[in-house]
């Protein structure tokens, strides 16, 4: 049954196509939420605990990763669509701040770009594939781990995001 759920989520996000570019898995029951603290490009500190009451989409990426670059515009769209109901955070993996900032400027990103210069945040979240995205509910509990490129702008992605949002 779990395999069907995972494949079903992949099929939803790809429009039912035969081959998905990602793997979606539910967060393991009983597994603790990893610590999360990172600075953004402006020097602001972000902590998962500070975002309680909002859904959170945490995307791990790098500018050398083609699927990451392809996915980024749809992450920006999601941030704009959901506004303050969903925090969309793009965590850059092990690149200098200047490189991450240059990428953000060149692509018109306005969502928060956080830095993980030593890869510590990615390691705590067990990120081994790029891009990887964590979906966190408004209660602060992780719901899903998605490995690979996703088109976050489609109606199918709404079905993954909707359960994250707190009631307002």
Task: Explain the layout of strands and helices.
Blueprint: H1 2-13, E1 22-26, E2 37-40, E3 45-47, E4 55-61, H2 66-82, E5 86-93, H3 97-107, E6 113-116, H4 120-124, E7 132-136, E8 142-148, H5 155-161
Parallel strand pairs: 4-5, 5-6
Antiparallel strand pairs: 1-8, 2-3, 2-6, 4-7, 7-8
Descriptive overview:
Strands 1-8-7-4-5-6-2-3 form an eight-stranded mixed β-sheet. The model is unreliable at 1-19 (pLDDT under 50). The protein has 168 residues and is of the alpha+beta class. The relative contact order is 0.23. The radius of gyration is 15 Å and the shape is globular. It has five helices and eight strands; from the N terminus they run H-E-E-E-E-H-E-H-E-H-E-E-H. Helix content is 31%, strand content 26%.
Q: Characteristics of this structure?
A:
globular; 8 strands; single chain; 168 residues; alpha+beta; eight-stranded mixed β-sheet; disordered N terminus
């Amino acid at each position: 049954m779990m395999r069907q759920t995972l494949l079903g989520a992949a099929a939803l996000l790809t429009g039912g196509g035969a081959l998905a570019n990602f793997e979606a898995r539910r967060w393991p029951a009983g597994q603790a939420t990893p610590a999360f603290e990172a600075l953004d490009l402006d020097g602001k500190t972000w902590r998962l605990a500070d975002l309680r009451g909002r859904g959170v989409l945490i995307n791990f990426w790098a500018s050398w990763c083609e699927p990451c670059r392809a996915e980024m515009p749809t992450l920006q769209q999601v941030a704009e669509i959901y506004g303050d109901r969903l925090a969309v955070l793009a965590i850059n993996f092990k690149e200098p701040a200047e490189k991450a900032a240059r990428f953000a400027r060149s692509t018109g990103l306005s969502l928060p770009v956080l830095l993980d210069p030593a890869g510590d945040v990615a390691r705590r979240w067990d990120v081994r594939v790029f891009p990887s995205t964590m979906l966190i509910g408004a209660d602060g509990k992780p719901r899903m781990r998605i490995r690979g490129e996703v088109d976050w702008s489609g109606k199918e992605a709404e079905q993954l995001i909707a359960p994250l949002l707190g009631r307002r």
